[in-house]
Amino acid sequence: MKHEYYQYNAEEILSKGPKFPLIIMKDNAEVFKSMADEMADTIVEHNAKGEKTVFICPVGPVGQYPYFVDRVNSEKISLKNVWFINMDEYLDDNKEWVSIDHPLSFRGFMKRTVYDKINPELVMPEVQRIFPDPKNPGHIPEVIGQLGGVDICFGGIGINGHVAFNEADGSLSNEEFLAQQTRVLKITPETRTANAIGDFNGALEDMPHYCITIGINEISHARKIRLGCFRNWHRAVVRRAVYGEQTSEFPVSLLQNHSDINLKITEFVASLTD
């Protein structure tokens, strides 16, 4: 085996000197609930001090949102001083947002699953629900600057190590890759295939070819980064992330030096046996 870290068992993955802090949790539900609780707890803390809260939010993972919505509604947590900046969105062949009613639309998902489920008296104004726009990609770094930075970036890790849709690109140096901001790009065949299997019942031919993504630059400058990993292929992805070298060919590895990042993984991902 060329890379022995792919064979590290649950004990070794913690003991061999991982380059990211790893938190092993029982199952998917525990990972999702932990992410939701950190979201809600941060908002409550900031509200008490009269401070705004700014998150970068994914649509994948998504299991945290029902827990988050339940806490917001049951505890009457105001989101009026909260900004959700979503990571990305699929684009059509004209490089415009897919329609909000497209089954893969992240805008549609957030509306149906998050914003429409929260008590209208608690939910943030629409202007504070931000998506990267292919017609104005510079808006994301601008608004982050105006808000004073991002408190926490939540997300996952893709099949080729991408965070958001920051696809691997070995033609760039690590420094060049980290400098990339919000932009339109073509989705790699690997990512289209993995997402078709995970999100679209395998309908690869109907998967979008383009997306707009928040940049790795914006992600890397968030004050905290929290990544959840729970899929079967995350077993290899996590091992490369925490033991591989920093390289633009596996973008998450470029976050190894971040001052406050952790990976929340399930016991299944930590183990190499079912």
TrEMBL record:
A molecular-function term among this protein's GO annotations: isomerase activity
Family annotation (InterPro entries): GlcN6P_deaminase-like, Glucosamine6P_isomerase_CS, NagB/RpiA_transferase-like
Keyword Cell inner membrane: no
Keywords (A to Z) from UniProt: Isomerase
Tree of life domain: Bacteria
PROSITE patterns assigned: GLC_GALNAC_ISOMERASE
Gene3D superfamilies: 3.40.50.1360
PANTHER family hit by this protein: GLUCOSAMINE-6-PHOSPHATE DEAMINASE-LIKE PROTEIN BT_0258-RELATED, GLUCOSAMINE-6-PHOSPHATE ISOMERASE
Protein name: Glucosamine-6-phosphate isomerase
